[in-house]
């Protein structure tokens, strides 16, 4: 148990280090001089040189990489070229939108998927099952930005239940803020829920064919009780794997959705920084997003350990 | 009235014209405190017969005929009534202890489940009773076993747990589907002894399914020999072993050296295999492997009495003096 935990923690750190190296290398070979972008094409050579010096661009690559990592360990991610404020501050303020958005979307997706998946599995090869399969087939195919626009059209512009976009900030209170996140979260969740519902259904049907489910029935449990008490927990193992993978998709989805709903989140920040060639922001946000994804997978690993005693006892 | 009385049971795959009978017209009974065996090679329909008694046939299979348990016809009983019987009045022991237990639930919780379901025991009470059961099945260190997961146990220990689970509510009928097939020879012995003790103690009826003649000889009082979904011979175990009538039973017994009526004797030694349900011919199913087969065997023989308590289905049964008719 301790050993496998340590092993997973180590692989978390190594993966993160690899991500920083890749991000740094990619930005290094990308054409475009940030100093030139900042000062414009008419800049004087000596002003350019001065700015490069100020940005530390005159140093060799390995020194800059080392400095970046060292800064990261101290919580110092440098200063944004365009905003002129520390990147940590910038990311921090944007996270207050993106993390709640992603969590809300994931919870919606998981909740919907469990309900639909369990329902379909318990109605296997009957109309209810076919209905869920048809609905999820459509759900999988709907692009989130399109669904987002549709939701705005219907709920915001026609019914006027929600505002069409923007974020009042958490200062405005919990519910107003959540209200602003609900439609974008739904737009993100639908496709994920559709995929996940199919995974839940397939995993359950798989487990329902196992001998121990028959044992449960031989004890006198009804079909529904056997599903709830015995099949579900075993089926959650493959489902958790997919949830981990989906979280990455979901974060990528926020880049588009935050733009559709004009939400000041991390996705919108990365979109803007790419336009402005704000390398300092880009590289840190990319590493940060990767760190979230890797951490989620780490949490999924912990979840396996919690749910499957066979993994706990294997060293 | 016997505890379990099965009459003209058919088990069908599919519906309508294309339906195939996997088990055809079998009748037998098990009384309280009686041990009845079903003997047959792999694929002859033993497990399906057991599952049909519990009303747990796999999807797509259906049973017809009559299965009376305690005077009630199980085939016409609703799902709710069946759930009340399963694990309560009828306990089932499975062939594969490795897969019969839920891998993510503790052994204690799994044994306590039927107790809580059927007897209305609370959590603590069920746990105490579970501990008692674990002592009865002679599990080493029963208190620790309560909180252990199945993968931490050996195959024999797991099968003991499955037995404890089946016995938890003191059922009047136990069905054991090849309870020792997946176990080592020495462990087989212990499990069979345990079963014998428990059945003797609780006076419940035991339907013991096996393909091992040694197990059948040692454990059962009466036996049904099945071949390809039908009963080819049945009667008191003792008489069938000393004086087998049906050519299939005789071939089975010939394949087992007399002194080795031990526990690892398997039936695979008759040339050929049981025909699958879909490729069964008309007439006697054993025809393709029978050394006595003749033209009359293209018509299915009925079970005919041989003495007061035995039946066999063959056109060429030996005369009572042992000679075979021409
Ligand atoms: N779910 C199913 N669908 C279709 N056919 C089945 C199904 N289960 C069993 N059968 C068929 O029914 C026949 C009898 O199966 P059964 O499991 O009762 O055999 P068995 O005598 O228990 O054999 P074994 O010794 O291998 O356990 C076999 O030919 C098998 O192929
Ligand atoms: S009926 Fe014919 S084929 Fe069948 S067992 Fe008897 S002799 Fe053999
Ligand atoms: Mg079987």
Into which percent range does the helicity of residues of chain B fall? Answer: 25-40%
Uncertain residue ranges of chain A: none
Shape of chain A: globular
The CATH superfamily title of chain A: MetI-like
CATH topology term of the largest domain in chain B: Rossmann fold
Proportion in β-strands of chain B: 15-25%
Distance between the termini of chain B: 41 Å
Tally of alpha and pi helices of chain B: 11
Task: Give a structural overview.
The complex is a heterodimer of chains A (315) and B (326). With 315 residues, chain A is an all-alpha fold. Chain A has one domain: MetI-like (MetI-like fold). Chain A is built from 13 helices and no strands. In chain A, helix 1 runs antiparallel to helix 12. The longest helix of chain A has 38 residues, at 223-260. With 326 residues, chain B is an alpha/beta fold. Chain B has two domains: 4-89 and 169-320, Rossmann fold (3-Layer(aba) Sandwich), CATH 3.40.50; 98-168, no CATH class. In chain B, 32% of the residues lie in helices and 21% in strands. Chain B has helices at 46-54, 79-85, 97-100, 107-119, 123-136, 142-145, 155-167, 185-202, 213-219, 237-242, 247-254; strands at residues 4-13, 20-30, 35-39, 61-69, 72-73, 90-93, 173-177, 205-210, 222-227, 230-236, 304-305, 311-312. In chain B, strands 6-7-8-3-9-10-12-11 form an eight-stranded mixed beta sheet, with helices on both faces. In chain B, helix 4 (107-119) packs across helix 5 (123-136), helix 5 (123-136) crosses helix 7 (155-167) and helix 7 (155-167) runs parallel beside helix 8. Chain B is globular and about 65 Å long. The chains are: A mainly alpha (315), B alpha/beta (326). The structure holds adenosine-5'-triphosphate, iron/sulfur cluster and magnesium ion (MG).
């Amino acid at each position: 148990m301790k050993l496998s935990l340590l092993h997973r923690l180590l692989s978390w750190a190594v993966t993160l280090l690899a991500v920083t190296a890749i991000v740094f290398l990619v930005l290094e070979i990308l054409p475009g001089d940030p100093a030139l972008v900042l000062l414009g094409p008419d800049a004087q050579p000596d002003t350019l040189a001065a700015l490069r010096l100020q940005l530390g661009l005159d140093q060799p690559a390995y020194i800059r990489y080392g400095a970046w990592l060292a800064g990261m360990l101290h919580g110092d991610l440098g200063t944004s070229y365009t905003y002129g404020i520390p990147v940590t501050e910038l990311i921090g303020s944007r996270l207050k939108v993106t993390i709640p958005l992603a969590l809300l979307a994931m919870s919606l997706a998981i909740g919907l998927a469990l309900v639909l998946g369990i329902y379909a599995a318990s109605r296997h090869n009957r109309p209810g099952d076919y209905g869920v399969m048809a609905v999820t087939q459509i759900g999988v195919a709907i692009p989130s930005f399109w669904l987002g626009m549709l939701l705005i059209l219907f709920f915001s512009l026609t019914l006027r239940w929600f505002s069409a976009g923007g974020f009042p900030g958490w200062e405005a209170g919990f519910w107003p803020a959540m209200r602003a996140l609900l439609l974008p979260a739904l737009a993100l969740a639908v496709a994920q829920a559709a995929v996940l519902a199919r995974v839940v259904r397939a995993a359950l049907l798989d487990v329902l064919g196992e001998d121990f489910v028959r044992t449960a029935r031989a004890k006198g449990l009804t079909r529904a009780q056997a599903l709830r008490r015995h099949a579900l927990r075993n089926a959650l193992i493959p489902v958790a794997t997919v949830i981990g993978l989906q979280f990455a998709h979901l974060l990528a989805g926020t880049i588009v959705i935050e733009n559709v709903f004009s939400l000041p989140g991390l996705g919108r920040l990365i979109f803007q920084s790419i336009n402005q060639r704000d390398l300092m922001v880009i590289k840190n946000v990319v590493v940060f997003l990767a760190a979230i994804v890797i951490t989620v997978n780490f949490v999924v690993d912990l979840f396996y350990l919690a749910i499957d005693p066979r993994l706990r006892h294997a060293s | 009235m016997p505890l379990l009385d099965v009459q003209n049971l058919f088990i069908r795959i599919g519906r309508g014209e294309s339906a195939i009978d996997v088990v055809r017209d079998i009748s037998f009974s098990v009384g309280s405190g009686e041990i009845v065996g079903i003997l047959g090679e792999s694929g002859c329909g033993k497990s399906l017969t057991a599952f049909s008694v519990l009303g747990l046939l796999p999807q797509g299979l259906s049973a017809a005929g009559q299965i009376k348990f305690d005077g009630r016809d199980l085939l016409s009983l609703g799902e709710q009534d069946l759930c009340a019987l399963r694990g309560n009045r009828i306990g089932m022991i499975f062939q594969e202890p490795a897969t019969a237990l839920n891998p993510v639930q503790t052994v204690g919780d799994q044994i306590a489940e039927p107790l809580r379901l059927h007897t209305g025991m609370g959590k603590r009470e069920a746990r105490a009773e579970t501990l008692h059961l674990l002592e009865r099945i002679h599990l080493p260190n029963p208190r620790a076993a309560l909180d252990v997961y199945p993968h931490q146990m050996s195959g024999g220990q797991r099968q003991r747990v499955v037995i404890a689970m089946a016995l938890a509510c003191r059922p009047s009928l136990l069905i054991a589907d090849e309870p020792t097939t997946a176990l080592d020879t020495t462990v087989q012995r212990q499990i069979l002894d345990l079963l014998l003790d428990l059945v003797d103690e609780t006076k419940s009826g035991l339907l013991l399914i096996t393909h091992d003649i040694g197990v059948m000889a040692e454990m059962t009082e009466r036996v049904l020999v099945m071949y390809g979904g039908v009963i080819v011979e049945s009667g008191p175990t003792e008489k069938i072993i000393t004086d087998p009538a049906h050519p299939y039973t005789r071939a089975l017994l010939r394949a087992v050296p007399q002194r080795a009526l031990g526990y690892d004797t398997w039936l695979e030694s008759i040339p050929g295999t049981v025909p699958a349900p879909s490729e069964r011919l008309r007439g006697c199913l054993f025809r393709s492997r029978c050394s006595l087969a003749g033209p009359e065997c293209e018509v299915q023989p009925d079970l005919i009495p041989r003495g007061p308590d035995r039946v066999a289905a063959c056109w060429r049964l030996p005369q009572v003096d042992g000679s075979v008719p021409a």
